Amino acid sequence: MSETDLQDEAIRVDTEKGNFKYPENYEFDAGVGLTEDTIKYISDVKNDDDWVREFRLKALEVFKKKPMPTNWADSDLENIDFDKIRYYLSKGQVPARSWDDVPDDVKETFERLGIPEQERKFLAGVEAQFDSEASYSRMKEDLEKEGVIFVGSTEGLAKYPEIFRPYFGKVIPTADNKFSALNSATFSGGSFIYVPKGVKLKQPLQAYFRINAENFGQFERTLIIADEDSEITYMEGCTAPKFETATLHSAVVELVALKNAKIQYITVQNWSSNVFNLVTKRGMADEGAEVKWIDCNIGSRLTMKYPGVVLKGKGARGEVLSIALANDGQHQDTGAKMMHLADNTTSNIISKSISIGKGRSTYRGQVHMPKHLKNCKNNTECDALLINTNSRTDTYPAITTRGQNNTVQHEASVSKVSAEQIFYMMQRGLSEGEAMSLAVNGFVNDLMKAFPMEYSVELKRLIDMEMEGSVG
Amino acid sequence: MNNTLEIKNLNVSIDGQAILKDFNLTIPKGEVHALMGPNGTGKSTLAKVMAGHEDYTVEGGEILLDGESILGKEPDEISHAGLFLAFQYPMEIPGVSIANFIRAARQARLPEGEDINAVEYYKDLYAKMDALKMDRKFTARSLNEGFSGGEKKRCEILQMSMLDPKYCVMDETDSGLDIDALRIVSDGVNHMRSPERGFLVITHYQRLLDYIVPDVVHVMFDGRIVHSGDKELAKELESKGYDWIKDEFAGAPANA
User: Fold this and answer.
1) Considering only alpha carbons, which residue of chain B is nearest residue A3?
2) What's the pTM?
3) How many structural domains is chain A composed of?
4) pLDDT by residue (tens digit) across B38-61?
5) B214-254 residue pLDDT tens
6) Could A425 and B107 be called an inter-chain contact, meaning their C-beta atoms sit closer than 8 Å?
7) Cβ contact, residue pair A428, B105, below 8 Å
8) Could you say which architecture CATH assigns to the domain B4-90+165-249?
9) SS (HEC) of chain A
10) Does the distance separating the beta carbons of B91 and A424 come in below 8 Å?
């Protein structure tokens, strides 16, 4: 019955929940455009160590040299004008530990998004980022006592270099792609997390990323290290108001699961339709470790995101479960990468995409099993749902498998919500939007069962919002 | 008129071809009307037009539900007005359970801000499933997905009873049913018969009318009703076949 309750709860929604903004009023502003001075300004404001300054400046060079990947990616990327973007905006460097100390407009923003309420209900810790910096960050005290570190990127690198520096930029090197280079130059905010050996977090840690300013680029940087036999679930959410101009979100997320550790990383993004969302996410799994990405992409103008797992140790497991919803004018270019580098490693990819109207979904998958490996397994399932005839969906699987007893299984399906299905549901009294929403929820239902309940509710709510908006 | 479902001079075409021609029919609450006729005479078209299907062009006429015009309204508005269509071919909706679907349909009838009482809802649902001899495990199954013909039709009757319509239009509900399923479905319909509800039972065969005994039987041919009578008419049709209708009424004016 709980599942029915979920669905029911999702039916009436405030469709404009994320679409509001407060006046811009910043203490720190790096100005418009990207030069060495921009990077130096950011480093000065943050009081970066020398090695971080150098890391940033080198990354800027790499960024400038690398061409846009438009030889394979959406040519809409060319519409990003890097000279018009603002790269750093903040109201201060130190996040508050109590909501009472958060500036009123920022606090109201997060209250409207329901963050403090969720924190009280089911979270072990929250970080709430407003443009470039976290305005609020707090973790339950008992976790601090157990040695869990949950801080922003600046604090992580400054205070705990011995923990974070060895892995920083190692899972995703600066030169991985043009946008990982951009992030490496300009990064600010994000979460740096360390979970000590054997510590298993029962409740998730959450970060919420909010863009408030126009023509802004948000470049958070996240690094999660789960030490041996530890477990952590991390959830992130994101919104922005609707602006006429393009906004850029380009994050880098690195996960390190040491021997027998488990990391589950959950994203529910709900960007407004002016946001370019170009994110690099990759995890490394040591022997017996598990990295699981749950990735839900709703909204944005163009999303390019292919969470990956490097299966480095024997018996490591990697998983990507993703849902992408492309509405009119949106392109969700998503997928997964699984790099098998040891024997007995297994990976699982389940991708569901929904394309509505002129919305476009693309799946790109890469599974790599080299010759010298034994007993590796991959399962890939890609299902696409099309609503209205203009929708477009493409699948580009790239699977290389060699070696002994390595097995790869790939299944793909494309289905449509037909006018007759909508008529049938409307005959029972559902509006067109409710009918489409129900069909979409049905399509993702089996995958959603794998998600924590709080996020299933949120996701259903977002799907309903999108479907309501798509009925002309 | 109140307390009737009234179809007046309805003319409907698809792709320029006339399907319903000056069609007239009045169903008072409390009565079961059977609509019979050979294939291709417009029976299913009538059912879909009544429910607001957009593929058809209405050239003229009226459909009044308790005096209120429903012609040209959206399918969900017609549903809320009280018309239920049991489909000849119910659609499969993958991933949406029967329980969630019917609940969403009921919720859609409530004023904004009002919520269904989940406990009462399930009590009602289970009682009605028991009456239709449906296993309770059915509630979790995806709507019509992989159902047998009989299961689909029982599921239609379950929805019909849960949504409490004023008028039920049943399109070839007997097709694809074996004798046991036919009996169960008919029992379900007979339980719903009441002075507050009217039925239009569309069927090709007389067999269904042994179980759902109609008050009036209409024979449809070439887009209109050509002959009406009591339940004996259905038996006559069964023994004579439809050919005599064709011979007698081809090109004849409407005679409802």
Assistant:
1) B100
2) 0.84
3) 1
4) 888 999 999 999 999 999 999 999
5) 999 999 999 999 999 999 998 888 888 888 877 777 655 54
6) no
7) yes
8) 3-Layer(aba) Sandwich (3.40)
9) CHHHHHHHHCCCCCCCCCCCCCCCCCCEECCECCCHHHHHHHHHHHCCCHHHHHHHHHHHHHHHHCCCCCCCCCHHHHHCCCCCCECCEECCCCCECCHHHCCHHHHHHHHHCCHHHHHHHHCCEEEEEECCEEEEEEECHHHHHCCCEEECHHHHHHHCHHHHCCCCCCCCCHHHCHHHHHHHHHCCCCCEEEECCCCECCCCEEEEEECCCCCEEECCEEEEEECCCCEEEEEEEEECCCCCCCEEECCEEEEEECCCCEEEEEEEEEECCCEEEEEEEEEEECCCCEEEEEEEEEECCEEEECCEEEECCCCCEEEEEEEEEECCCCEEEEEEEEEECCCCCEEEEEEEEEEECCCEEEEEEEEEECCCCECCEEEEEEEEEEECCCCEEEEEEEEEECCECCEEEEEEEEEEECHHHHHHHHHCCCCHHHHHHHHHHHHHHHHHCCCCHHHHHHHHHHHHHHHHHHCC
10) yes
